[in-house]
Structure formats: structure tokens, C-alpha cells
Amino acid sequence: MSTSFTTGRLAAGNSNQNTESNKLDQIQGLTAAAQSWLQNTLQVETVEELAELAVDQALNRLEADGNPVPRDQLEDWIGQAQALVAAQDSWQPFATFVVSLQSRQVGGETQQRTVIYFLEGDRRKIWPGLECDGVYGLMTDQLQRLFQLQPEAPPRRRVNP
Fold first, then answer.
1. Quick check: pTM over 0.90?
2. Secondary structure (DSSP) of 141-160
3. Neighbouring C-alpha atoms within 13 Å toward the C-beta of 67
4. Nearest alpha carbon to residue 101 among 115, 87, 90
5. Alpha-carbon distance 9 to 46, whole Å?
6. pLDDT single digits (tens) 91-129
7. pLDDT tens per residue, range 140-155
């Protein structure tokens, strides 16, 4: 089993998986001329970049460059972009487990324990020592309950005649 952790946004070179969904022409009311202003004045090329704009800074910059845009119109474009970005990033957690391996010193002796917390079910289990099988079992059990899945049948052993 492999596990990977990611943080932050993908680098710009990797975010072009769906370039069609990232085009500014998806924004209603954003004319080709306005797209050009945004690209040339603010270097906004994508829906994601539009979604991250700060309204006041963008208004000031557009006005300084002779391309004033009404505040409500810019807010609308940014709002549409934010909605599009949110729709593309629709991953929602359905099961969150926090596993904590803990230790303490008692009378010169190190004690250890394993704690798992199932956030959505508000359930906690604590084992003395370092426990892996119990953690796996509890996670599997909670997911089966969550999805009302049938437990996996244990592997069949071959018996030689």
C-alpha cells in the first residue's frame, strides 16, 4: 500500500489537466475586450487566477491603466470564477481517522499507547502499546458500517489431499 501527502496547489505546469474548464470565456459578461484587459493589466489568464483576485487592488490597477470596470461587475466575474473553481475541487471527506502514537515516562519506564479517533462518528479507541492490526480493523469496521458493506471473506486456504 502506498500513501502520499500533498499540500498547497499544483505547480502551474501541472494544472493544465483540463484547460477547457480553465478558460475565461466561461465567465458570463466577460467580453473579449475585458479578458484582454485582465490578461494585459493583471496577468490573469485562467479562471483560477481570476478567482484569487482582490477586488480593490484589481479595480485600482485597471483604473490606473485606463480600463475602469464597475465594482459590481468585477465582483460578479470573481464570484463566478470562485464558484467554478469550487465546483472543480469538489472532494469532500466522508471518513476522517486520526491516529496518535503516544508515549510517557512513568517511574523511569516508557509506556506507549495507540489512540484512534473517527471524526465523523465521534468514536475513539485506545490500546496499550503500539497497535496496527486494531487500527486497521477499526477503520475497516467503521467504513463497513458507513457503507453497510459486507465484510470481505477471509482468504481460502488450500488443503492438500
1. no
2. HHHHHHHTPPPPPPPPPP--
3. 17
4. 115
5. 14
6. 777 889 999 999 999 999 999 999 999 988 888 999 999
7. 998 888 888 555 555 5
